[in-house]
Amino acid sequence: MAKFRKIGVLTSGGDAPGMNACIKAVVNKAHSMGIEVVGITGGYAGLIDGNLRHLTMQDVNTLVGSSGTVLYSSRCPEFKTEQGMATAVESCRKNHIDALVCIGGDGTFRGATDMTFRGFPSIGLPGTIDNDITASDYTIGLDTAINTTVQMIDCLRNTCESHARLNVVEVMGRDCGQIALYAAIATGAVAVAVPEVPFDEAGCMEKIRALREKGKRGMIVVVSEGMRNPDDTPYAETLAKRIEADTGVETKFARFAHVVRGGVPTARDRVTASEMGARAVELLVEGRSNLVMCELDGKVVPVDIAFALIADRMYKNKLKPGDLDAFTPEQLEQMKALCEKRRAEIRNLCDIAASVAY
Ligand code: ADP
Ligand code: F6P
What we know:
Blueprint: E1 6-11, H1 19-32, E2 36-40, H2 44-49, E3 52-54, H3 82-94, E4 99-104, H4 106-117, E5 122-126, H5 142-163, E6 166-171, H6 178-187, E7 191-193, H7 201-213, E8 219-224, H8 235-247, E9 251-255, H9 267-285, E10 291-296, E11 299-304, H10 305-315, H11 329-356
Parallel strand pairs: 1-2, 1-4, 4-5, 5-10, 6-8, 6-9, 7-8
Antiparallel strand pairs: 2-3, 10-11
The structure holds adenosine-5'-diphosphate and 6-O-phosphono-beta-D-fructofuranose (F6P).
6-O-phosphono-beta-D-fructofuranose binds near residues 105 and 130.
């Protein structure tokens, strides 16, 4: 068992509903094991600036259901430099931090690895609405983001029905179309466009024309922000203009953007965050590190960060020469299986969306 006296916790990258529940779980679990916790303000920037504060159980008492992150977040390019990292390491030493829990996405996990290799055992928690960590079936924040999106589309649907309009809705998710797909199914969108699967624009127009001819008034089309025009401008807005020009159906455009990130965390996100946060502390105390907590087939399990990051690159077809050298044939098979599972999930969601669309 590692002798930890103090764990640092930080949130980094884009915030996600459920991050606060993670913080609370880390603090409560650590205190129950006689370990102090310091909250690092503003992600890795807080480590560099020495912006830390002691967190008691009372401090985090009401956090389980709150959105955003009370520790604040940032994207901190300076941390990626040798100088920035050296300052962060010095800051951990000076403040007697023995280990770190880093909540965020893949960039945040790279930082956790860097800190582990510099003598500060670290574990990552997947806090991102995008659900884009290939090694995990689920990332904290996805469920809330979907539910927030659904609530907003329901509102649009009402006014579309009144005015016989179509609304194209762009939702976040970076290169991952899951928020768009789940929201499209849950709101009965007539079409959904995601970056993982070629979009049949002509088929979409035909469908809209046919539905209007049958008397359908309000219609919703969901587009993931990862859908881009050849010049990298957002495709969603372009599609809205083309739909109106092509079908004659009056079409509005709405970009939900960051609103989708700010909803009150659902029970699903609170529970997953709590379990992952508490488990991360236990694992650190057991002497484990350089891990990201993942959910696989309904269970929370630790996965090596290097494995998780390379599985991501494999899924995105972004492998670099030598990336796979450090892994056993069995691990490579596991990575391939994870990629295939994810592709199958996206295909399945597309099929459901197509079969229930009206
Ligand atoms: P996310 O964690 O959501 O993927 P980012 O990619 O913006 O978000 O990463 C969050 C932060 O993690 C960055 O601002 C930076 O401080 C740190 N980070 C990202 N990539 C690396 C890296 N290669 N090495 C060390 N730290 C990194
Ligand atoms: O990674 C979460 C996310 O909300 C993505 O869905 C989106 O593309 C990105 O962050 C937006 O980042 P920012 O908050 O820096 O605009």
